[in-house]
Amino acid sequence: MSEEINQLPCNVLTDRIRTARRLTNELKSRQRLSSIGGQLNYLVETEDEWDVNQTFPTTPPFTYEQKTLQLTHTGDGKQSFPITMPFIDIRINGTADANRIDYLFTGGFSGELGYVNGSNIVLVSNIIRSVAHIENELVDRWTMLLTYQGSITCRAKAQVMASCDGSVALEVL
């Protein structure tokens, strides 16, 4: 009898509205990712197109300058000591794929992580995970050193794959 009731036009319409509402909520909410092992992960990022969009000058008489980028993930409090993995997309002097920091296979920089064009050289080194979680069990932090030659415009977008939701901040120190 319940099958016959479910097939009534008003009940079919109600069921379709519920299904549409559920699908809309799934599309609008943050996407959760799960691997084969069943570990639930969240891709956490800011709403901004670029988290860092700054011009770094070179000050004479120095040939090379250095800037430090710091990425911080703060968990939402649902899990202590979340498992995190950072992803940072860094672009130099433009937003095209050709301006992306990548592994170099030319000249004396072969195998280095960086960007080289005619007038600019940028090398990324010392990517270090800090021990910030000792002071605060919800915070995970990474720092990286950019060494550059020439005036550059740096754009960077950070994402963190984490075992809990939260917030991400990328800043220049």
Provide a descriptive summary of the structure in words.
This protein is an alpha+beta fold and about 170 residues long. The protein is about 15% helix and about 45% strand. The chain has helices at about 1-5, 10-30, 130-135; strands at about 30-35, 40-45, 50-55, 65-75, 85-90, 100-105, 115, 120-130, 140-150, 150-160, 165-170. It has a six-stranded antiparallel sheet. The mean pLDDT is about 80.
Core attributes:
173 residues, alpha+beta, 46% strand
Short account of what is shown:
The protein has helices at 2-6, 9-28, 132-135; strands at residues 32-34, 40-45, 52-56, 64-75, 84-92, 102-103, 113-116, 121-129, 139-149, 152-162, 166-172. It is an alpha+beta fold and 173 residues long.
List the helices and strands and how they pair.
Blueprint: H1 2-6, H2 9-28, E1 32-34, E2 40-45, E3 52-56, E4 64-75, E5 84-92, E6 102-103, E7 113-116, E8 121-129, H3 132-135, E9 139-149, E10 152-162, E11 166-172
Antiparallel strand pairs: 1-2, 2-10, 3-10, 4-9, 4-11, 5-10, 6-7, 7-8, 8-9
